[in-house]
Amino acid sequence: MHAEGLVPSLVRQKVPRRAVHGVLLLDKPLGLSSNDALQKVKRLLRAEKAGHTGTLDPLATGLLPLCFGAATKFSQVSLEADKTYRATVRLGVRTSTGDAEGEVLQERPVAVTPQQLLQACMQFMGPIQQVPPMHSALKRDGKALYEYARAGIEVEREPRTVTIFSIEVLSWQGASIEIEVRCSKGTYIRTLAEDIGEALGCGAHLTALRRTGSGPVGLGDAYTLAQLEAMSEAERDACLQPVDALLADWPVLRLEAEDAGRFLSGMRRRTAHADAERLRVYGPQPAAFLGSGSVKAGELISTRLLSPLEVQGLLNAQASQ
Questions:
Q1: Cis omega before residue 65 (within 30°)?
Q2: Class of residue 313 by CB neighbours under 10 A (exposed 0-12, middle 13-18, buried 19+)
Q3: 3-class SS at 11?
């Protein structure tokens, strides 16, 4: 058969995309990049538009919120959210990358008491300064730091302020400890592990990392790729959380029909609502999510808006459920 004869066949095999709106909580597997995971789920859902909410390293597993359709407008919310991780830390060994992939740079004996471990963890509570690791996706002159590191080049990094809200020691077996860390955005857990090791005088590196929480969403509502692949399309659609799922811990403001229309057009409106930096805004019952906004000096200001088409699509979806 001539090559030209294959073209219609290939065109017919192309899977059509569709409008999908919502948030899917993925339990990302080990060894897969965040973007690879996103593309796999996007194909399973046949979604037209998708985005993830911040990079989770290939060596890390756990919660990766994926946004589809209208929900992509609010992915930044998850980027800014506080995170919770479970980390396994190997004491006594320091590596070139701060994790198990790097070469061993130094080994030291581990003679640590529970009280010393607790004190070391307490040193890093609250606002702290962290220098981003060379083996990270942080960009310098358009290139990720890990690319410089692989070329044997070390570049100067400015320390930045992050906040550690809590560190809890979950288990301790030999030289391996498991900790749960709740922290602000931008925290490098591998750097925290190394710093705890240095505070103990024995060094340390990260051997496993699992994200269990991001803002108001948690791993308990997440699905694995294997689970999604085994489902029908209707079952996958049922796994989607609402477009406003990442804003679930924000205050709510409801508007009557006329004000809802004005809000969707981007017009500012007077309101009796107290001043607030961030709000979820809804139309009249049946409640349609319209977008996010803020109130300053008694004035409602839109920050992210759904299009009227998207709002109608969400209402239609609600009605069909």
A1: no
A2: middle
A3: helix
Burial-class residue 7 by CB neighbours within 10 Å (0-12, 13-18, 19+): exposed
CA–CA distance, 146 with 17 (Å, rounded to integer):
35
**pLDDT value, residue 158:** 83
Tens of pLDDT, residue by residue over 69-128, are: 999 999 999 989 999 999 999 999 999 989 998 899 999 999 999 999 999 999 999 999
Query: How does the average pLDDT of the chain come out, rounded?
Result: 90
CB 169 within 8 A of CB 86: no
Residue range 184-215, pLDDT digits in tens: 999 999 999 999 999 999 999 999 999 999 99
Gap between the Cα atoms of 247 and 262, Å rounded: 22
Annotated active-site positions, please? 57
pTM summary value: 0.88
Neighbours of 80 (CB within 10 A): 13
Domains defined along the chain, listed by start:
18-81+217-239 (3.30.2350.10), 83-214 (3.30.2350.10), 250-320 (2.30.130.10)
Closest CA to 89 of 166, 172, 32, 30: 172
